[in-house]
């Protein structure tokens, strides 16, 4: 996470996308650094739209992107993706990554977390609250079914259209991935 | 359409006087301007302007409007841009979609918000000196169905596990 904020500091005060939804800690932390923040609760839209059995496959894709990540191109100089990718359906992943690429400016950092071991299919989801550039507080949400396990090789493949992918290991088996657009 | 000027009530149920109130059965289409605090619990499509006063959107309030006020408390639903010159509170039952511009913001756990947040410095000439930053609130643990895991703090010191792969 420190590397994320170091990369973010390369930009003038700007807007950061937070895919974990709105929480006081992240709003306070980022705005105290002089940045704006755009919370976007992707898991909320997954539950309401993507997993809605009444919508056709094409309709739900359209609806999902009508609500999630619906910003102008090059709107952000950073993105906090947290563990969102672990819960994205595989048939949504490519479009999602492409949209992130569109929304971020060149050089913008993305922080993505992957946690748990390969064996676990149902994992704890969390709210991630930034306490400092090196400290996160995790508040438990519901247990969710992970779409798939991502090896480091798989992660590199997903982000092959980006400039750089770096891997770090934090506590509790959490892998931090820093991606530079 | 002419702006609506709500009638005052002697007691607003919050122990304050001189607050106008619009109840949950009222539907407004147009512009609301007020020179006193307003509690709005109905349905609104239009704009709301209370430059020097406080606006509370009640739990039944459903507002599709851009809002400007000194202080704004959202308990119900707002779809529109919100500008609060002093403070904005988004309560846990609230749903707010739109861009925010304010000096201070409080977001309770459980509140739904989507948009962009821009914290601006307070106009020093109008009010006493106050920190021109977002208010820090102690984290509240969100409700969970998980068993026995509780909250955790983790230091994201980030030990590299592979060499950085540059492209």
List keywords for this structure.
heterodimer; A: 181 residues; alpha/beta; two-stranded antiparallel ribbon; 6 helices; 8 strands; B: mainly beta; 13-stranded mixed sheet; disordered C terminus
Report on this structure.
The complex is a heterodimer of chains A (181) and B (167). By secondary structure, chain A is of the alpha/beta class. Helix content of chain A is 31%, strand content 29%. In chain A, strands 2-1-3-4-8-7 form a six-stranded mixed beta sheet, with helices on both faces. In chain A, strands 5-6 form a two-stranded antiparallel ribbon. The model of chain A has no long low-confidence stretch (mean pLDDT 91). Chain B is mostly beta strands. Helices cover 0% and strands 48% of the residues of chain B. Chain B is built from no helices and 16 strands. In chain B, strands 1, 2, 3, 4, 5, 6, 7, 8, 9, 10, 11, 12 and 13 form a 13-stranded mixed beta sheet that branches. Chain B is globular and about 35 Å long. Chains A and B meet through helix 2, strand 2, strand 5, strand 6 and strand 7 of A and strand 11, strand 12, strand 13, strand 14 and strand 15 of B.
Distance between the termini of chain B: 60 Å
Name the chain pair with the biggest interface and residue counts per chain.
A-B, 52 and 45 residues
Oligomer: heterodimer
The parts of chain A where pLDDT drops under 50 for at least 5 residues are: none
User: What is the straight-line distance between the termini of chain A?
Assistant: 16 Å
The SSE string of chain A, one letter per element, is HEHEHHEHEEEHEE
Q: Helix and strand succession of chain B? A: EEEEEEEEEEEEEEEE
How many helical stretches of chain B? 0
Please indicate the percent range of residues of chain B in DSSP E strands (runs of 2 or more): over 45%
Structural class of chain A: alpha/beta
| Order of neighbouring strands in the sheet with most strands of chain A | 2-1-3-4-8-7
Mean pLDDT of chain B: 76
Contiguous helical run count of chain A: 6
Question: How would the global form of chain B be characterised?
Answer: globular
Mean pLDDT of chain A: 91
Number of strands of chain B: 16
Rg of chain A is 15 Å
Major sheet size, sense and barrel closure of chain A: 6 strands, mixed
């Amino acid at each position: 996470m420190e590397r994320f904020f170091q990369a973010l500091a390369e930009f003038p005060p700007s807007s950061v996308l937070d895919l974990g939804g709105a929480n006081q800690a992240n709003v306070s932390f980022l705005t105290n650094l002089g940045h704006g923040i755009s919370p976007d609760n992707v898991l909320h839209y997954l539950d309401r739209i993507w997993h809605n059995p009444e919508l056709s496959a094409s309709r739900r894709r359209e609806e999902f992107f009508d609500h999630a990540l619906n910003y102008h191109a090059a709107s952000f100089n950073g993105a906090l993706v947290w563990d969102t990718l672990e819960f994205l359906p595989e048939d949504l992943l490519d479009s999602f990554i492409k949209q992130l690429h569109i929304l971020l400016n060149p050089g913008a950092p993305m922080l993505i977390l992957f946690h748990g071991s390969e064996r676990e299919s149902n994992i704890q989801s969390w709210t991630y609250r930034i306490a400092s550039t090196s400290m996160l507080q995790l508040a438990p949400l519901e247990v969710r079914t992970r779409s798939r396990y991502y090896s480091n090789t798989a992660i590199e493949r997903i982000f092959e259209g980006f400039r750089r992918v770096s891997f770090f290991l934090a506590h509790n088996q959490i892998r931090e991935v820093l991606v530079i657009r | 359409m002419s702006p609506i000027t709500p009638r005052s009530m002697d007691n607003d149920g919050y122990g304050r006087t001189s607050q106008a109130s619009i109840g949950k059965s009222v539907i407004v289409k147009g512009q609301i301007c007020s020179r006193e605090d307003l509690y709005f619990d109905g349905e609104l499509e239009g704009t709301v302007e209370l430059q020097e006063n406080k606006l509370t959107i009640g739990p039944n309030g459903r507002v599709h409007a851009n809002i400007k006020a000194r202080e704004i408390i959202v308990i119900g639903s707002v779809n529109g841009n919100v500008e609060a010159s002093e403070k904005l509170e988004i309560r846990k039952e609230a749903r707010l979609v739109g861009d925010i511009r304010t000096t201070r913001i409080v977001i309770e756990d459980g509140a739904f918000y989507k948009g962009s947040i821009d914290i601006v410095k307070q106009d020093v000439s109008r009010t006493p000196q106050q920190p021109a930053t977002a208010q820090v609130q102690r984290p509240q643990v969100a409700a969970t169905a998980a068993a026995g895991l509780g909250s955790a703090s983790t230091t994201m010191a980030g030990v590299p596990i592979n060499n950085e792969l540059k492209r």
